[in-house]
Amino acid sequence: MEPWPWLTAALLLLLLLLQLSRAARFYAKISLYCALCFSVSILAAAVCLLRHGGRTVDNMSIISWFVRTFKYLFGLRFSVKGREELWKDRPCVIVSNHQSILDMMGLMEVLPPRCVQIAKRELLFTGPVGLIMYLGGVFFINRQRSSTAMSVMADVGELMLRENVPVVPVVYSSFSSFYNSRTKLFTSGTIQVEVLDPIPTSGLTVDDVPALIDTCHRAMRTAFLRLSKPPQENGAPEPAAQ
């Protein structure tokens, strides 16, 4: 018996399910996103190896180009304000709010050249995705071994004190108007991205770290609620500050 009628019927049933079920559409889009991450990572890794021959932060510009194409497939748009703060010729530490697996697309929209990222060590073992992060010069920290994680962060702290590196907060508006894993919502939408004014660290010591963290948090929370206000007014749930 020919398999084509069964395959055609299965495809039609799948298409009908996607039209009728929001949960089905959600999982289909998430599966597509994950598949894209894996397949594009393989392609980008090949390009990075051919272009630079191995692990270097310069590969991140190649990775960023590939990831920025994702938004067209999912109907997402990023409106960025204050990008010039990240392109100034001086070292800085970038901090941003975390919401979902879609954060990576927002990060690549504003990533300046030769930006070294820090990620949890578990991501190194995610196949092609871990490989491309390694080739992009990402530093991996083991959160289970606090001494290793603290060592990496201590190096960052020493750099901030030595080079007078400011902290530059980057805030993404709430995804709740188009993405919600609890309600299985995943549609198109626009993300407001704002690069806040740099927070100076000149003259600070270790004792000033708690106050610095509080300053960053308050600035980012205020910006997050302001940027996320339109979805809230349109009837979406009030966003939780990340």
UniProtKB/TrEMBL annotation:
Residues 92-209 form the Phospholipid/glycerol acyltransferase domain. GO terms for molecular function: 1-acylglycerol-3-phosphate O-acyltransferase activity. It comes from the Eukaryota. Its EC number is 2.3.1.51. Keywords: Acyltransferase, Membrane, Signal, Transferase, Transmembrane, Transmembrane helix. The chain crosses the membrane at residues 33-50, 123-141. Pathway: Phospholipid metabolism; CDP-diacylglycerol biosynthesis; CDP-diacylglycerol from sn-glycerol 3-phosphate: step 2/3. This is 1-acylglycerol-3-phosphate O-acyltransferase. It comes from Pipistrellus kuhlii (Kuhl's pipistrelle).
